[in-house]
Amino acid sequence: MARPCPNRSAHGRPRSRACRSGGATWALLGLVLASCSLGPRYHRPDVPAPAHWVAAEPAAAPDALSPEWWREYGSPELDALMERARSTNDDIGAAIARVREADAQRRIAGAGLLPTLTAGGTAVRERAPVSAGGFQTFDQYTPLATVGYELDFWGRRRAAFVAAKAAANASRYDRVTVELTVMSGVATTYFLSLELRDRAAIAEANLASADRILQGLRRQRSVGTATALDVAQQETIVATLSAAIPPLRQQLRQALDALAILVGSTPDGIDVGSGNLEALTAPSVGAGLPSTLLARRPDVASAEAQLVAANADIAAARAAFFPSISLTATGGYESAALATLLTPASRIWSLGAGVTQPIFAGGALRGQSEYAKARYAELLSGYHKAAISAFADTEDALSGVRQTADQLEREQLAVAQARRAYDIARAQLDAGTINVLILLNTEMALFSARDALAQVRYARLQASVDLFRALGGGWTTGVTAGRSP
């Protein structure tokens, strides 16, 4: 701020009115500049967190999730697929490009806060008539540099920069969300491929077992110890088991094709090796406190960043109602001869200031302001939905982990009991103490239980992946994995 002029000059004469009022003018201008923030101050919306997780154990401790959470399953093949997806997945690549787009927009918005500097020059040769008659040819050389700056009195450009910066942050959080979705998709699709292959192998083993029984019944029929009905019933079982194999193989091919898309490959470039679901163990993950969840979810962070941007847009829309003030300065040289162009006598300069006040724009400014407010209200609802959806996702995942773990134990017991019943029936049939119908019933029960066990193993692993995703996959603010934008 300028220092006020003294009331009198060095010779004792009173200062002019303009000099005496200069200090007050500068003080008033300082107050204006310090108090011209026109936008509402941003406050994070309050979304109350649940007091506790309904589906979690009360003693569950918060775990520090690793960004490479898939390594917890102990599958080198899955690790390799994840690395391929991180580097070649097209959705992740598009998300990275969107980050670069947002960064470019942020730089564009930030440029408005700085002065502009341009340089140019002209060289003109002109032939013009003179008053004495005839014509005269003369040269004119003018190199110039121009500096322009718009004073951001009302914070319009600053608000635009804040909005662009928040949008860039949102694009980064969106990129993490896309990557987390892709990695979850790779894991679940890989587990689905293993499940379908296991089920196909189980169906083939069941078919081989049923065929052996059929051959035995045919031999017994040839000696009169089995009936044609016994053989026909077993033939029906063999045909049913055989018909179940092609759909499983088709689904396996479809799962592999989906996995190929996720890793950015053609279908012939992907296959599942020798792994199986039984060799994998779903890791145990603690959900932590509900109050900490929102800070671990990149989708919630993105929703809030968009809200920050919309809040800044309101400030920019309000500032558009006020006048804009621009300053320009031009300096350079002008001469009719190159030899004297850079001499002090050829130096030229100009200073200028301009004020532009919107008066009538057909309601565009008011419409833009109303749009910014409505956009903020829309995104506020979006943030609230993202927050409560995060709590719901976690509850669903916790319930899935808990119930599938219980279901897995029960299904393993069911398989053990079905196998025991089948073995007893086989022994009694060989001893001639039961008829073949009892064997057929225990046989189908065992086959169904083995197939159901493979499906439950997949459901258990899928539930654990859903929990990793619901908890944010180990993401924290400022930490991302995968390719850099």
Could you characterize the architecture of this molecule?
- With 485 residues, the chain is an alpha+beta fold.
- The chain folds into 2 domains: 38-113 and 154-322 and 364-470, Outer membrane efflux proteins (OEP); 118-151 and 323-356, Single Sheet (Outer membrane efflux proteins (OEP)).
- Helix content is 58%, strand content 11%.
- It has a 4-stranded antiparallel β-sheet, with no helix packed on it.
- Strand 1 and strand 2 (135-151) form a beta hairpin.
Q: What's the quick description here?
A:
This protein is an alpha+beta fold. 58% of the residues lie in helices and 11% in strands.
Helix content: 55-70%
Quaternary structure classification = single chain
CATH superfamily of the largest domain: Outer membrane efflux proteins (OEP)
* Mean pLDDT across residues: 85
CATH top level assignment of the largest domain: Mainly Alpha
How many separate domains?
2
- From the spread of the alpha carbons, the general shape counts as elongated
**What fraction of the residues are assigned to beta strands by DSSP?**
5-15%
Number of helices: 8
The CATH architecture of the largest domain can be named as Up-down Bundle
Tell me about the biggest sheet? 4 strands, antiparallel
